[in-house]
Amino acid sequence: MNYTLDLMTEILNINSPGGDTSEAINRLKGEFESLGVKVSKTNKGAIYGTIKGQEDENAKLISAHIDTLGAIVKEIKSNGRLKLSNIGGFAWNSVEGENLYIKTKKGKIYTGTILPEKASIHIYSDVVSTVQRNEETVEVRIDEDVHSDLDVKNLGISVGDFVSFEPRVVITKNGYIKARYLDDKACVAIMFTAIKYLRDNNLAPRQTTHFFISNYEEIGHGLYDIPEKTSEILAYF
Fold first, then answer.
1. Which residues contact 82 (CB under 8 A, 6 or more apart)?
2. Cβ neighbours of 170 (radius 10 Å)
3. H or E stretch including 6?
4. Which pLDDT value is given to residue 186?
5. How far apart are CA 60 and CA 163, in angstroms?
6. Cα–Cα distance between 210 and 10 in angstroms, integer?
7. 120 FRET partner, CA 20 to 30 A, in 42, 72, 205, 226?
8. φ and ψ at 4, to 5 degrees?
Protein backbone atom coordinates (compact mmCIF):
# COMPACT_ATOMS: atom_id res chain seq x y z
CA MET A 1 0.00 0.00 0.00
CA ASN A 2 2.86 2.41 0.74
CA TYR A 3 4.17 1.91 -2.79
CA THR A 4 0.73 2.63 -4.25
CA LEU A 5 0.19 5.78 -2.22
CA ASP A 6 3.70 7.10 -2.79
CA LEU A 7 3.55 6.62 -6.56
CA MET A 8 0.01 7.99 -6.76
CA THR A 9 0.94 11.11 -4.78
CA GLU A 10 4.02 11.69 -6.89
CA ILE A 11 2.25 11.48 -10.24
CA LEU A 12 -0.74 13.49 -9.01
CA ASN A 13 1.73 16.29 -8.33
CA ILE A 14 3.21 16.12 -11.83
CA ASN A 15 1.21 18.49 -14.03
CA SER A 16 0.08 16.64 -17.16
CA PRO A 17 -2.80 18.35 -18.98
CA GLY A 18 -3.69 16.75 -22.31
CA GLY A 19 -1.00 17.70 -24.83
CA ASP A 20 1.72 18.26 -22.21
CA THR A 21 2.33 14.87 -20.65
CA SER A 22 5.99 14.21 -21.43
CA GLU A 23 7.22 14.68 -17.83
CA ALA A 24 4.67 12.25 -16.43
CA ILE A 25 5.22 9.77 -19.27
CA ASN A 26 8.99 9.85 -18.72
CA ARG A 27 8.49 9.26 -15.00
CA LEU A 28 6.36 6.18 -15.69
CA LYS A 29 8.76 4.94 -18.35
CA GLY A 30 11.40 4.97 -15.63
CA GLU A 31 9.07 3.07 -13.30
CA PHE A 32 8.52 0.36 -15.91
CA GLU A 33 12.28 0.07 -16.39
CA SER A 34 12.96 -0.06 -12.64
CA LEU A 35 10.60 -3.05 -12.46
CA GLY A 36 12.37 -4.78 -15.34
CA VAL A 37 9.48 -4.37 -17.77
CA LYS A 38 10.10 -3.84 -21.47
CA VAL A 39 8.73 -0.44 -22.60
CA SER A 40 7.47 0.59 -26.03
CA LYS A 41 6.47 4.09 -27.14
CA THR A 42 3.81 5.03 -29.68
CA ASN A 43 4.17 7.73 -32.32
CA LYS A 44 1.81 9.92 -30.27
CA GLY A 45 3.88 9.62 -27.11
CA ALA A 46 1.97 7.01 -25.10
CA ILE A 47 3.88 4.10 -23.59
CA TYR A 48 3.15 0.51 -22.71
CA GLY A 49 5.04 -2.07 -20.75
CA THR A 50 4.84 -5.73 -21.73
CA ILE A 51 5.17 -8.74 -19.47
CA LYS A 52 5.59 -12.03 -21.29
CA GLY A 53 3.01 -14.59 -20.26
CA GLN A 54 2.88 -18.35 -20.19
CA GLU A 55 0.95 -18.06 -23.46
CA ASP A 56 1.63 -15.49 -26.16
CA GLU A 57 -1.63 -15.75 -28.09
CA ASN A 58 -4.75 -13.91 -26.93
CA ALA A 59 -2.75 -11.24 -25.15
CA LYS A 60 -4.41 -8.96 -22.62
CA LEU A 61 -4.16 -5.18 -22.44
CA ILE A 62 -4.77 -3.02 -19.36
CA SER A 63 -4.99 0.72 -19.94
CA ALA A 64 -5.09 3.81 -17.73
CA HIS A 65 -4.46 7.42 -18.67
CA ILE A 66 -1.96 9.93 -17.31
CA ASP A 67 -3.33 13.05 -19.03
CA THR A 68 -5.66 15.35 -17.12
CA LEU A 69 -8.06 18.19 -17.67
CA GLY A 70 -6.43 21.60 -18.01
CA ALA A 71 -6.35 24.68 -20.20
CA ILE A 72 -4.29 26.78 -22.57
CA VAL A 73 -3.80 30.52 -22.75
CA LYS A 74 -6.34 31.82 -25.25
CA GLU A 75 -5.70 35.55 -24.96
CA ILE A 76 -3.49 38.01 -23.08
CA LYS A 77 -5.75 40.87 -22.04
CA SER A 78 -4.72 44.51 -22.12
CA ASN A 79 -4.89 44.65 -18.31
CA GLY A 80 -2.33 41.83 -17.90
CA ARG A 81 -4.82 39.07 -17.19
CA LEU A 82 -5.38 35.92 -19.23
CA LYS A 83 -8.29 34.27 -20.94
CA LEU A 84 -8.21 30.48 -21.22
CA SER A 85 -9.60 27.70 -23.39
CA ASN A 86 -10.30 24.39 -21.73
CA ILE A 87 -8.56 21.08 -22.37
CA GLY A 88 -11.16 18.37 -21.86
CA GLY A 89 -14.66 18.82 -20.57
CA PHE A 90 -15.14 20.52 -17.21
CA ALA A 91 -17.42 23.17 -15.75
CA TRP A 92 -15.65 26.49 -15.25
CA ASN A 93 -17.28 26.98 -11.86
CA SER A 94 -15.50 23.80 -10.70
CA VAL A 95 -12.14 25.62 -10.90
CA GLU A 96 -13.28 29.04 -9.70
CA GLY A 97 -10.81 30.42 -7.17
CA GLU A 98 -8.28 27.67 -7.92
CA ASN A 99 -4.53 28.20 -7.91
CA LEU A 100 -2.90 27.24 -11.17
CA TYR A 101 0.38 26.92 -13.04
CA ILE A 102 1.23 28.53 -16.38
CA LYS A 103 4.02 26.79 -18.30
CA THR A 104 5.81 28.86 -20.94
CA LYS A 105 7.22 27.43 -24.12
CA LYS A 106 10.68 27.61 -22.54
CA GLY A 107 9.48 25.58 -19.57
CA LYS A 108 9.30 28.36 -16.97
CA ILE A 109 6.42 28.05 -14.52
CA TYR A 110 4.35 30.97 -13.25
CA THR A 111 1.51 30.72 -10.73
CA GLY A 112 -1.83 32.45 -10.75
CA THR A 113 -5.48 32.25 -9.75
CA ILE A 114 -8.59 31.78 -11.87
CA LEU A 115 -11.56 33.99 -10.96
CA PRO A 116 -14.59 35.56 -12.60
CA GLU A 117 -13.90 38.94 -14.15
CA LYS A 118 -16.44 40.32 -11.69
CA ALA A 119 -15.40 38.50 -8.55
CA SER A 120 -16.13 40.90 -5.67
CA ILE A 121 -19.56 40.51 -4.09
CA HIS A 122 -19.15 43.96 -2.53
CA ILE A 123 -18.79 45.68 -5.91
CA TYR A 124 -20.81 43.44 -8.21
CA SER A 125 -23.48 42.18 -5.81
CA ASP A 126 -26.11 42.22 -8.55
CA VAL A 127 -24.27 39.85 -10.91
CA VAL A 128 -21.63 37.81 -9.02
CA SER A 129 -23.97 34.95 -8.09
CA THR A 130 -25.84 34.81 -11.39
CA VAL A 131 -23.29 35.45 -14.13
CA GLN A 132 -22.46 32.34 -16.15
CA ARG A 133 -18.92 30.99 -15.78
CA ASN A 134 -17.32 30.34 -19.19
CA GLU A 135 -14.26 31.21 -21.27
CA GLU A 136 -15.48 34.78 -21.71
CA THR A 137 -16.31 35.56 -18.08
CA VAL A 138 -13.37 34.08 -16.15
CA GLU A 139 -9.76 35.21 -16.15
CA VAL A 140 -6.37 34.40 -14.68
CA ARG A 141 -4.63 36.81 -12.35
CA ILE A 142 -0.91 36.07 -12.58
CA ASP A 143 1.16 36.21 -9.39
CA GLU A 144 3.47 38.80 -10.92
CA ASP A 145 3.54 42.61 -11.06
CA VAL A 146 1.89 42.90 -14.47
CA HIS A 147 -0.50 45.62 -15.66
CA SER A 148 -0.53 45.21 -19.44
CA ASP A 149 -0.27 42.60 -22.17
CA LEU A 150 3.32 43.72 -22.78
CA ASP A 151 4.22 43.06 -19.14
CA VAL A 152 2.90 39.51 -19.51
CA LYS A 153 4.67 38.88 -22.81
CA ASN A 154 7.94 40.09 -21.26
CA LEU A 155 7.62 37.23 -18.76
CA GLY A 156 7.66 34.81 -21.70
CA ILE A 157 3.98 33.90 -21.42
CA SER A 158 2.23 33.58 -24.78
CA VAL A 159 -0.97 32.32 -26.36
CA GLY A 160 -0.98 28.53 -26.43
CA ASP A 161 0.92 28.03 -23.17
CA PHE A 162 -0.37 25.14 -21.06
CA VAL A 163 -2.22 25.79 -17.80
CA SER A 164 -2.61 23.23 -15.00
CA PHE A 165 -4.85 23.44 -11.95
CA GLU A 166 -3.59 22.74 -8.43
CA PRO A 167 -4.16 19.00 -7.78
CA ARG A 168 -4.80 19.53 -4.03
CA VAL A 169 -3.65 16.09 -2.91
CA VAL A 170 -4.78 15.18 0.63
CA ILE A 171 -4.64 11.81 2.37
CA THR A 172 -6.61 11.99 5.61
CA LYS A 173 -5.63 10.28 8.86
CA ASN A 174 -8.39 7.71 8.36
CA GLY A 175 -7.23 6.86 4.85
CA TYR A 176 -9.49 8.87 2.57
CA ILE A 177 -7.80 10.31 -0.51
CA LYS A 178 -8.83 13.64 -2.00
CA ALA A 179 -7.38 15.21 -5.13
CA ARG A 180 -8.11 16.41 -8.59
CA TYR A 181 -7.32 13.84 -11.27
CA LEU A 182 -7.77 10.74 -9.14
CA ASP A 183 -9.27 9.50 -12.34
CA ASP A 184 -7.08 8.19 -13.63
CA LYS A 185 -3.81 8.58 -11.78
CA ALA A 186 -5.00 6.41 -8.90
CA CYS A 187 -5.61 3.67 -11.46
CA VAL A 188 -2.13 4.18 -12.91
CA ALA A 189 -0.65 3.64 -9.45
CA ILE A 190 -2.78 0.52 -8.92
CA MET A 191 -1.63 -0.82 -12.28
CA PHE A 192 2.01 -0.44 -11.29
CA THR A 193 1.30 -2.04 -7.91
CA ALA A 194 0.02 -5.13 -9.74
CA ILE A 195 3.17 -5.16 -11.89
CA LYS A 196 5.36 -4.83 -8.80
CA TYR A 197 3.54 -7.73 -7.14
CA LEU A 198 4.24 -9.95 -10.15
CA ARG A 199 7.90 -8.93 -10.20
CA ASP A 200 8.44 -9.22 -6.44
CA ASN A 201 6.98 -12.72 -6.43
CA ASN A 202 8.62 -13.86 -9.67
CA LEU A 203 5.23 -14.52 -11.26
CA ALA A 204 4.20 -14.47 -14.91
CA PRO A 205 0.61 -13.91 -16.06
CA ARG A 206 -1.11 -16.70 -17.98
CA GLN A 207 -1.24 -14.58 -21.14
CA THR A 208 1.21 -11.95 -22.29
CA THR A 209 -0.06 -8.66 -20.84
CA HIS A 210 0.44 -5.11 -22.07
CA PHE A 211 0.08 -2.20 -19.62
CA PHE A 212 -0.85 0.87 -21.67
CA ILE A 213 -0.38 4.42 -20.35
CA SER A 214 -2.63 6.63 -22.45
CA ASN A 215 -1.85 10.34 -22.88
CA TYR A 216 -4.83 11.79 -24.79
CA GLU A 217 -7.89 10.29 -23.08
CA GLU A 218 -9.34 13.61 -21.87
CA ILE A 219 -9.58 14.90 -25.43
CA GLY A 220 -11.17 11.85 -26.93
CA HIS A 221 -8.61 9.38 -28.27
CA GLY A 222 -7.16 7.62 -25.28
CA LEU A 223 -6.68 4.01 -26.31
CA TYR A 224 -4.97 3.44 -29.65
CA ASP A 225 -2.10 1.55 -31.27
CA ILE A 226 -3.19 -1.75 -29.71
CA PRO A 227 -0.47 -4.43 -29.92
CA GLU A 228 -1.02 -7.41 -32.18
CA LYS A 229 -2.53 -10.57 -30.71
CA THR A 230 -4.49 -8.55 -28.14
CA SER A 231 -7.84 -10.25 -27.58
CA GLU A 232 -9.14 -8.52 -24.43
CA ILE A 233 -8.85 -5.01 -23.05
CA LEU A 234 -9.48 -3.64 -19.55
CA ALA A 235 -9.56 0.16 -19.63
CA TYR A 236 -9.67 2.46 -16.61
CA PHE A 237 -11.29 5.77 -17.60
1. 73, 74, 75, 76, 102, 112, 139, 140, 142, 152, 157
2. 10
3. helix 2-12
4. 96
5. 35
6. 23
7. 72
8. -60, -50
DSSP annotation of 150 reads H
Closest CA to 206 of 8, 15, 60: 60
Q: What is the pTM of this model?
A: 0.91
Amino acid at position 166, single letter: E
Identify which has the larger pLDDT, 166 or 129. Answer: 166
Are 58 and 207 within 8 A, CB to CB? yes
CA distance 215 to 43: 11
Query: Which has more confidence, 224 or 229?
Result: 229
Task: Indicate if 217 belongs to the active site.
Answer: yes
Give the three-class secondary structure for 12. Answer: helix
Q: What is the chain's Cα-based Rg?
A: 21
Phi, psi at residue 24, to the nearest 5°?
Answer: -65, -40
Per residue in 206-225, pLDDT (tens digit) is 999 999 999 999 998 878 88
Task: Write the DSSP string, 165-217.
Answer: E----EE-TTS-EE-TTHHHHHHHHHHHHHHHHHHHTT---SEEEEEEEES-G
Question: Which residue out of 33, 217, 218, 228 is catalytically annotated?
Answer: 217
Name residues whose C-beta falls within 8 Å of residue 26's C-beta, 6 or more positions apart in sequence. Answer: none
Which amino acid is it at 72? I
Q: What are phi and psi of 120, to 5 degrees?
A: -85, 120
Domains of the chain, first to last: 2-67+181-236 (3.40.630.10), 70-167 (2.40.30.40)
